[in-house]
Design brief:
globular, 5 strands, alpha/beta, 5-stranded parallel sheet, Rossmann fold
């Protein structure tokens, strides 16, 4: 690191927005999801391989819609074999609903979440769930999210769910059991691997942010 004058590790795996390297397809994915949310669509999807920058896009989406008073975002990181009750607890916590007892049933957790979503909608506010690493969602959790996105008035759905996932998530959604949830996803953006030019620019950008003083 000293040879190049680096002040920190340029390729560490974290969500530091300083290291966010944006390409045209990243900007399209970001703009598509912001449009999905502000147009009150029930669902959106960003697809891309691991390490392509999907999680940093989710952070940008949160930052953007947090500027508006009429959206209430909740960013939920999904992990392998995450129980549906843990998903609900995390959603409630991210939405600021913290006075919830432990070891409750799915229904006992869904009821306050439904009530919160409906109450906020009546206040002119819309809940937005952003589910990072959605390819780890269990079948039970996917059906649970279908139920949540089914909350509606005669004119529109009450929440927007943004799924951030790898390609395997798309393959799962092709099964007929997920047809209803698949139909909720109105906008999909795919981020392809960087080409040679973009890869060089990405490396130089990260080195510069990390403090590189000499050309590489």
């Amino acid at each position: 690191m000293q040879r190049w004058g680096l002040k920190e590790e340029p390729f560490k795996d974290n969500l530091d927005e300083r290291f966010y390297f944006s390409t045209k397809q990243h900007e399209r994915a970001y703009a598509s999801m912001v449009y999905c949310i502000t147009n009150h669509e029930p669902g959106g999807l960003i697809i891309g391989q691991s390490g392509i920058g999907k999680s940093l896009i989710s952070q940008r989406i949160i930052s953007k819609i947090s500027d508006y008073d009429d959206y209430i975002p909740a960013l939920i990181l999904i992990y392998p074999q995450m129980p549906k009750t843990s998903l609900l607890y995390e959603a409630l916590s991210q939405l600021g609903i913290t006075e919830i007892k432990r070891n409750l049933t799915t229904k006992a957790l869904l009821d306050p979440l439904h009530e919160f979503i409906i109450d906020k909608y009546r206040e002119g506010k819309r809940v937005v769930l952003i589910l990072d690493e959605s390819h780890f969602l269990s079948s039970q959790s996917l059906h649970l999210l279908r139920t949540l996105t089914n909350l509606e008035t005669p004119t529109e759905k009450l929440i927007t769910a943004i799924f951030i996932a790898e390609d395997r998530f798309v393959r799962r959604l092709r099964y007929t059991t997920y047809e209803s949830l698949r139909g909720r996803i109105k906008i999909t953006a795919r981020i392809k691997p960087l080409d040679e030019r973009e890869t060089k620019e990405y490396i130089l950008y990260r080195l510069t942010v990390a403090g590189a003083e000499e050309p590489v």
